[in-house]
């Protein structure tokens, strides 16, 4: 028991350190790395629960990465876990920020640094695309092809066409989700009624 | 007093910023440069440039620097707390309620209904980021790196952290000397 707890704290620390140190481009771009740690590497939760957690994190205001770190820590080890995970996630780069500041001109002017940032960006894009594919697959599986694609079109139109804030779009879908299974039941029983 | 102001500034900027750290940057600019004048506008741009060059969340890196510049290590801690604690707390409490009822059809419906939105958000973000990459290193390099990364991640099952390190090495050692 004791040993298992130590292992979990060590895993949390390592996972959060990795997501903090290898995540470029701010909170939302780091989500694929959180998914790899939580779902693939340590199996703290399945893909579905991760998606749900991410959606809730997206509806609430504030930085996304620290919300995810805090919640993953909490899910494993309660409030202590929440503090522990968040600290490991932000500590190295927050301290680096203070220590490196005198070097800011050298860093932002350096071609080597620019090349590194440029080269990592397409990798982040691939990670995000993979995650988008996973979520899309899940939606189609749950809603079926026709209705699933309709939900993509609606979400895309709202976000890109009408520029609705993502928080509001998620809230609207959540409200629909509350009634989804009830509506499905009603629809199915009506179909049955018609065919008999 | 400065600690209280730091708390209020970072609390407000993050509370009103939906969509994660990057979305609250303009709000932070308003508080840090215009209202409290902890940094000049030029200094703020430099801090942002440094924050973008380093990994990890954006909001906490800005909190780290501005908190430290305005209030030393106590300021560092207060600015972080104001940035992280309110939203993390809300997140944990809300998830607690949802998990309690997760066998219900209501919560199941919610978790299904959010999948397409998250999918589309990720797709949009992917295209934005590909555009950023192309602006930085050109389409040819970007697509080549993306193709190699895709093969490594999906076919060879390499850990993303290793792929990121490999792209760094390539970007630092090769790209600056191509032109």
UniProtKB/TrEMBL annotation, chain A:
InterPro entries: CHR_Transporter, Chromate_transpt. Belongs to the chromate ion transporter (CHR) (TC 2.A.51) family. It comes from Shouchella clausii (strain KSM-K16). This is Chromate transporter. One of its GO terms (molecular function) is chromate transmembrane transporter activity. The chain crosses the membrane at residues 12-34, 54-74, 86-107, 113-133, 140-159, 165-183. It is found in: Cell membrane. It is a multi-pass membrane protein. Keywords: Cell membrane, Membrane, Transmembrane, Transmembrane helix. GO terms for cellular component: plasma membrane. The keyword Transmembrane applies. It comes from the Bacteria.
TrEMBL record, chain B:
It comes from Shouchella clausii (strain KSM-K16) (Alkalihalobacillus clausii). It is a multi-pass membrane protein. GO terms for molecular function: chromate transmembrane transporter activity. It is found in: Cell membrane. Keywords: Cell membrane, Membrane, Transmembrane, Transmembrane helix. Pfam families: Chromate_transp. The lineage of its organism: Bacteria, Bacillati, Bacillota, Bacilli, Bacillales. The keyword Transferase does not apply. Belongs to the chromate ion transporter (CHR) (TC 2.A.51) family. One of its GO terms (cellular component) is plasma membrane. InterPro entries: CHR_Transporter (IPR052518), Chromate_transpt (IPR003370). The chain crosses the membrane at residues 73-94, 106-127, 133-153, 160-178. The keyword Lyase does not apply. This is Chromate transporter.
């Amino acid at each position: 028991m004791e040993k298992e707890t130590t292992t979990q704290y060590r895993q949390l620390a390592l996972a959060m350190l990795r997501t903090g140190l290898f995540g470029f481009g701010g909170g939302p771009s780091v989500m694929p790395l959180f998914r790899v740690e939580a779902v693939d590497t340590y199996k703290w939760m399945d893909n579905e629960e991760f998606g749900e957690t991410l959606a809730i994190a997206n509806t609430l205001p504030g930085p996304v990465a620290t919300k995810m770190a805090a919640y993953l820590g909490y899910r494993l080890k309660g409030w202590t876990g929440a503090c522990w995970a968040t600290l490991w996630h932000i500590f190295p780069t927050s301290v680096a920020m203070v220590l490196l500041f005198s070097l800011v001109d050298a860093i932002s002017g350096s071609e080597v640094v620019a090349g590194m940032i440029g080269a990592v960006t397409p990798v982040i894009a691939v990670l995000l695309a993979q995650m988008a594919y996973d979520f899309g697959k899940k939606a189609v599986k749950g809603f079926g092809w026709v209705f699933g694609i309709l939900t993509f079109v609606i979400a895309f139109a709202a976000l890109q066409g009408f520029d609705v804030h993502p928080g509001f779009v998620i809230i609207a879908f959540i409200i629909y989700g509350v009634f989804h299974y009830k509506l499905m039941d009603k629809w199915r029983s009506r179909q049955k009624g018609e065919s008999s | 007093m400065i600690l209280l102001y730091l708390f209020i500034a970072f609390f407000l900027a993050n509370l009103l910023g939906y969509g994660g750290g990057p979305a609250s940057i303009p709000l932070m600019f308003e508080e840090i440069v215009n209202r409290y004048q902890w940094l000049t506008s030029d200094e703020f741009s430099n801090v942002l440039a440094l924050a973008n060059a380093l990994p990890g969340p954006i909001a906490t890196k800005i909190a780290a620097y501005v908190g430290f510049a305005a209030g030393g290590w106590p300021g560092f801690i207060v600015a972080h707390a104001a940035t992280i604690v309110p939203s993390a707390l809300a997140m944990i409490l809300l998830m607690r309620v949802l998990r309690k009822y997760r066998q219900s059809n209501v919560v199941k419906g919610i978790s299904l209904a959010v999948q397409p939105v998250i999918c589309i958000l990720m797709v949009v973000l992917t295209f934005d980021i590909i555009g950023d990459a192309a602006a930085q290193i050109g389409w040819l390099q970007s697509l080549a790196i993306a193709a190699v990364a895709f093969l490594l991640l999906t076919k060879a099952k390499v850990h993303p952290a290793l792929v990121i390190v490999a792209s760094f090495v390539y970007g630092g050692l090769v790209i600056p000397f191509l032109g």
